[in-house]
Specification:
- This is Peptidogalycan biosysnthesis/recognition.
- The protein is α+β, with helices and mostly antiparallel strands.
- 32% of the residues lie in helices and 30% in strands.
- The protein is built from eleven helices and 13 strands.
- Strands 1, 2, 3, 4, 5, 6, 7, 8, 9, 10, 11, 12 and 13 form a 13-stranded mixed β-sheet that branches.
């Protein structure tokens, strides 16, 4: 029998469902939905016996109206699922689509926007509901390969840089005390200042402490040390199959040395000791070689993944009414532009 459940963020069942998924990332967890948004978040679960499709959502009110829209947390979200062996998921996908449409109409949802996960096959779940728009490429390292095979994909100049960094006696280890965590936080703030980041990127110190010690997923802070001083660091999250490069920073004094290269190399070597199948570095601004961040990451691997977003207008009439004063653009939903 098909079943549709709405799981609240406070329920332990959210975590149970996520952990049963064939592949998921920390962006799908209840913890991340608690810290990333001030709006109401829910996990919609569509199931048949032990097979299920789960969609984490954030519901936002549309100011001045009785309507709402759905969005996703920042990062890589979208549906997750688990299909029992030899189960034909076709009927469950149809049930998901019909039930989701009914839910949206009952809740006065006008539109749906979600960032999708480059490492999870989600298109077959949501196709025919609106459109999937391809944006940029991301970089992933295949942890199923032997370490020497992974390293063969490194750009030649990267291999040379790594050798030089090691000769400079820069070492990488997991942060082992509060002083090293605090040093990284200050370096992260310094990095955000340097790139003129938006205020939303300036997380509180408590955010970092809690993130590194949450119960929903494992996270590790790797720091680069030079003469007993933290000069760079990066937080990596670890779920069942995915290690994700998250927040990072390098102090101004050592920016030219690019110790982050050494940190990512050590993260890869650590990843090879886990059950994870991918170390996902993410993308850049445009996902092309003329994008310096993407070029930096692509020096580690040519295993590029497609980052896409999902756009779905539930009620075209209301959407057009809300958008009528807005200039035409690719922004979605247009009425929030």
């Amino acid at each position: 029998m098909f079943k549709f459940e709405i799981i609240e963020n406070s329920s332990e069942k959210w975590t149970e469902i996520v952990n049963k998924s064939s592949t998921y990332d920390f962006h799908h967890t209840a913890y991340f939905h608690k810290i990333d948004t001030l709006f109401d978040s829910k996990l919609l679960v569509f199931s048949f016996q032990e097979s299920f499709i789960a969609l984490p959502i954030v519901i936002r009110p549309i100011d001045g109206t009785d309507y709402f829209d759905i969005t996703s947390v920042y990062g890589y979200a979208g549906p997750i699922y688990n299909f029992e062996e030899n189960y034909d998921e076709t009927e469950l996908i149809v049930f998901f689509k019909n039930s989701f449409i009914d839910f949206c109409k009952e809740q006065n949802i006008v539109s749906v926007f979600s960032r999708l996960h480059p490492l999870i096959d989600q298109e077959s779940i949501i196709e025919t509901l609106g459109e999937i728009v391809d944006l940029n490429k991301t970089v992933s390292i295949d942890l199923n390969q032997f370490a020497e095979v992974q390293r063969k994909e490194y750009r030649k100049s990267l291999k040379s840089d790594l050798s030089q960094l090691r000769r400079k006696d820069i070492m990488v280890r997991e942060a082992s005390n509060k002083e090293e965590v605090d040093a990284f936080i200050e370096i992260y703030y310094e990095t955000m200042d340097r790139v003129s980041a938006a205020s939303s990127y300036y997380f509180s110190k408590e955010y970092f402490y809690n993130f590194l010690n949450n119960d929903d997923f494992t996270s590790k802070l790797l720091v680069a040390i030079k003469e007993d001083k933290v000069i760079a660091g990066a937080i990596f999250t670890i779920t069942d199959k995915i290690i994700q490069y998250h927040l990072a920073g390098t102090t101004e004094d050592y920016i030219r040395d690019t110790p982050m290269k050494l940190i990512l190399d050590e993260a890869r070597l650590f990843g090879n000791t886990t059950k994870a199948e991918s170390l996902h570095l993410g993308g850049g601004v445009g996902g092309h070689d003329d994008d310096s961040l993407f070029r930096f990451k692509s020096g580690f691997s040519k295993d590029f993944k497609q980052f896409s977003v999902w756009k779905y207008i539930v009620d075209q009439k209301i959407y057009d009414e809300l958008s009528k004063e807005k200039a035409k653009s690719n922004f979605f939903p247009l009425y929030r532009s």
